[in-house]
Amino acid sequence: MHDGITLEKRGVPTAVICTEPFISSGKAMSNIGGIPDYPFVVLPHPLGSLDEERLRERAMQAAPEVLKILLARG
After folding, report:
1. Which domain range does residue 55 map to?
2. 3-state secondary structure the chain
């Protein structure tokens, strides 16, 4: 989240993806970072232990929302 907010402040459109257990942390970071309404994509946890096929499925699940965020902020 920190990197996404930093890049946004520098004019680089970003889309942050986090998993469900990190929603409250993401909201707190966006508040601390000065962009309280900073949108981010939430996916089911975990991601790190998924095989390539399941990870691809999650990426496809996130893609429409990532695009929406990037186009709205860009």
Report:
1. 2-73
2. CHHHHHHHHCCCCCCEEEEHHHHHHHHHHHHHCCCCCCCEEEECCCCCCCCHHHHHHHHHHHHHHHHHHHHHHC
Q: Which residues contact 11 (CB under 8 A, 6 or more apart)?
A: none
Structural domains of the chain, count:
1
User: What is the pTM (predicted TM-score) of this model?
Assistant: 0.89
Output the CA angle 63-65-67, nearest 5 degrees. 70
Q: Tell me the pLDDT of the chain (74 aa) as tens digits.
A: 999 999 999 999 999 999 999 999 999 999 999 999 999 999 999 999 999 999 999 999 999 999 999 999 65
Question: Are the CB atoms for 63 and 30 separated by under 8 Å?
Answer: no
